[in-house]
Amino acid sequence: MVLTEPITRPAAGEVTIRDLFKSFTLNGRRLDVLRGIDLQVRGGEAIAIVGPSGCGKTTLLRVLAGLEDPDRGDVLIDGAPVHGIGNQRAVIFQEPRLLPWLTVTQNVAFGLEVRGTDRIKAAEKARHYIRLVGLGGFEEAYPCQLSGGMAQRVGIARALTVQPEILLLDEPLGALDAMTKLTMQEELSRIWREEGVTMILVTHDLEEAIYLADRVLVMSKDSGTPTRLIDLDLPRPRDRSAPVFVALRRRLMAEFGLH
Amino acid sequence: MTLETLETPALSAPPARVVAARLAQAGRSGFARYGLLAGFLILWQVGSTQGWLNATVFPPLDLIFAALWDGLASGALIDDIAISLQRSGLAFAAAVVLGIPLGLFMGQIRAVEHALDPILQFFRQTSALALYPVFILLLGLGEASKVFVIFWATLFPVLLATIGGVKEVDRKLIEMARTYGATRGTVFRRVVLPASVPSIFVGLRLSATTALLLLIAAEMIGANRGLGFQVMNAQYNFQIPLMFAAIFLLALLGLAANFTLVTLQRRLCRWAEAN
Ligand SMILES: Nc1ncnc2c1ncn2[C@@H]1O[C@H](COP(=O)(O)OP(=O)(O)OP(=O)(O)O)[C@@H](O)[C@H]1O
Ligand SMILES: [Mg+2]
Fold first, then answer.
1. May I ask which residue range the UniProt record assigns to the signal sequence (chain B) (predicted)?
2. CB contact under 8 A, A110 and B178
3. Are the C-beta atoms of B230 and B216 separated by less than 8 Å?
4. CATH code, residues B75-273
5. What residue ranges do the domains of chain B occupy?
6. Does one domain contain both A174 and A159?
7. Structural domain boundaries, residue A253
8. Residue A7: inside a domain, yes or no?
9. Looking at the complex, does the CB of residue B193 fall below 8 Å from at least one CB of chain A?
10. Is A196 inside a domain boundary?
11. pTM of the model
12. d(CA B24, CA B11)
């Protein structure tokens, strides 16, 4: 079988979302947040999810992470339905969520240790990813000694260290200043390329979405408008000032009724 | 930046000038910290010898230290220290051994905490001293009732602080651990427990203070040994310097307990220092 289909075999990290529904009850009123989401993400692809505040981006990501159960519909990873948390996925939150009593190395090794890797091996691997996110030299620092951007890198390194097939990111750069954000976007792009992971990124920054993603999922708040999927057919590495880039950004902004 | 200062290698023998400067610096900061205390003691001594103070109530410090020395040399005060340490130590240890695990358990399981909280609040608000007669009725006037009343009062600070610490653990950190597949046990061991340590220490320090407070009260009622007894007894017999010597020892005991706990806390919570 491997011989007959040498190239078309799906890369690991394929995500299929089928007819996903999720609602919450808020003050006795039912709130349909996810209304039949369908999405097919190829292994190694980068998808950005954008949409107005409260449209359900975080909810979708939490369902994908297994932190929340859908009311209806399926999430399949590499063709198999998944329920709950699993080893193929790692989550990067808006806040770094570091354990303040652990050093950078111990924090980065945390995920591996929890999954049963022995301390020494985990630390070794952690050091590799600490260098990858550009924090070499800070291995023994404590979280309180790091800047916001550095702390977020530690969180990213921790997620990478468990070598997930799928990286789920919820506004990972949302709390950073503009300059740090640009650098981190470049680094995320590089890391994504080097690691070959599937990346599903929630962001409210349209430029970030265009810079990083292969496709953008635009979610809407009102039930009348369906979700849309926009293909970003741009060469990489991406140039923010290229006319195609600017044009895409304008188009995406128009989707939100801006301009 | 901070890293460089953290990782400064041990300097090899600094020059004398630097040592002198450091000593002067230490002297200045020492004066800023202990100057007032020294002033107070000097004022006491001078006031007492000069007759500004009633010397029978506030005897000069040298008399107090002479009484202290006599008591220690003869072994009489040593005996009192030993029995007092035993009572408060036993009670404190029991409170810790029961309070911390119970607090960790109660803080974790909402239903348990919910059911036990009203009775806890009720007991806590009932003064241990008011209950002392009850304990005496139940346990007699011997060691058991003394240790128990101290234990009773000491239990609540550490128990409540532990519950509070566990309940206040950042949910986001727990969720983070869960996304890596951590089991309940792992979350407890690697997130909840370390995150609660600082507030457990707050409880321990409060408990230690309470233990000494109750020790003295318990020893003033129906005891014939112990530092608290010695304070009362010396007063009855008008051995005022001895009374102050016992008070001084009690203060020292409190300082030592606090110092031990603070040192331990520093060692365990080094990560919280820089905040
Ligand atoms: N646990 C919950 N219980 C009740 N309602 C919830 C819960 N989680 C989310 N919601 C509701 O679901 C809606 C979508 O929330 P969600 O956090 O997914 O939005 P979002 O798109 O991530 O918004 P933002 O861009 O502001 O982060 C909101 O109206 C929110 O109030
Ligand atoms: Mg959100």
1. none
2. no
3. no
4. 1.10.3720.10
5. 75-273
6. no
7. 12-88+170-259
8. no
9. no
10. yes
11. 0.84
12. 19
Res. A259: pLDDT tops 80 = no
Whether the CB of B178 is below 8 Å from some CB of chain A: the reply is yes
Q: Where are the alpha helices (DSSP H) in chain A?
A: 57-65, 104-114, 119-132, 148-161, 178-195, 206-212, 243-255
Please name the residue whose Cα sits nearest to atom 1 of ligand 1. Answer: A24
β-pairing verdict for A198-202 and A46-50 = parallel
The whole-angstrom distance between A102's CA and the closest CA on chain B is 8
Q: Residue A184: CB within 6 Å of ligand 1?
A: no
* Whole-number Å distance between alpha carbons of A34 and B224: 75
User: Coil, strand or helix: which one is A165?
Assistant: coil
Write the CATH number for A28: 3.40.50.300
Write out pLDDT tens, residues A138-152: 999 999 999 999 999
ipTM of the complex: 0.89
Query: DSSP readout, chain B?
Result: -HHHHHTPPPPSS--HHHHHHHHHHHHHHHHHHHHHHHHHHHHHHHHHHHTSS-TTTS--HHHHHHHHHHHHHHTHHHHHHHHHHHHHHHHHHHHHHHHHHHHHHHHH-HHHHHHHHHHHHHHHHS-HHHHHHHHHHHH-SSHHHHHHHHHHHHHHHHHHHHHHHHHTS-HHHHHHHHHTT--HHHHIIIIIHHHHHHHHHHHHHHHHHHHHHHHHHHHHSS-SSSHHHHHHHHHHTT-HHHHHHHHHHHHHHHHHHHHHHHHHHHHHTHHHHT-
Same domain, A24 and A150: no
Q: Flag whether A2 is in a domain.
A: no
Q: Which two tokens stand for residue B88?
A: 């408060």
Q: How many domains does chain A have?
A: 2
Looking at the fold, whether A79 and A193 belong to one and the same domain comes out as yes
Lookup: tokens for A17? 């979302």
Report how far residue B99's alpha carbon sits from residue B165's, in angstroms, rounded to the nearest whole number: 13
pLDDT band at B8 (very low <50, low <70, confident <90, very high): very low
Pocket test for ligand 1, best of A59, A69, A93, A204 (most atoms within 8 A of CB): A59
* Strand partners of residue A5: none
Segment B155-182 shows an average pLDDT of 95
**A200, β-bridge pairs:** A47, A168
Q: Please indicate, yes or no, if residue A60 is contained in any of the structural domains.
A: yes
Tell me the mean pLDDT in the region B42-54.
91
Distance from CA of B271 to the nearest CA of A (A): 5
